[in-house]
């Protein structure tokens, strides 16, 4: 999904640059549509990163804490805190989506709330992945 969004974003930007510099006519959606694709791609891609635990981290815990049991406990606490924070962010994103659904974007004439909808969708997806990590019996990195 994220790769498709990145490819679509690249195609949109290439098309926009071509239209602007070769044809001399910039599409009216040149600013809004790539931004929309970027936001949705980033938040949907973050679900996969959360599932794979591939978000950037410092990796210092194994250097500081030698005990595997303590590291596992810290990992579970971290998973729980992240789950709570993602649910809070999803709620805030949903509230913002509802407030902005009656507004429309300038060029695309679509509800602004559709852009903000990416926040609760992405956060709920990441929260489900965090819940899976929290409930799994395997080691947490």
Automatic annotation (TrEMBL):
Keyword Cell membrane found: yes
BP GO annotations: C4-dicarboxylate transport
GO MF: transmembrane transporter activity
Ribonucleoprotein is among the record's keywords: no
Any one GO CC term of the record: plasma membrane
UniProt-annotated location(s): Cell inner membrane
Mode of membrane association: Multi-pass membrane protein
The Tripartite ATP-independent periplasmic transporters DctQ component domain, residue ranges: 9-136
Main location: membrane
Lineage: superkingdom: Bacteria
UniProt keyword annotations, A-Z: Cell inner membrane, Cell membrane, Membrane, Transmembrane, Transmembrane helix, Transport
Classification via InterPro entries: DctQ (IPR055348), TRAP_DctQ (IPR007387)
Transmembrane intervals: 73-94, 114-135
Function: Part of the tripartite ATP-independent periplasmic (TRAP) transport system.
Family: Belongs to the TRAP transporter small permease family.
Subunit note: The complex comprises the extracytoplasmic solute receptor protein and the two transmembrane proteins.
Protein name: TRAP transporter small permease protein
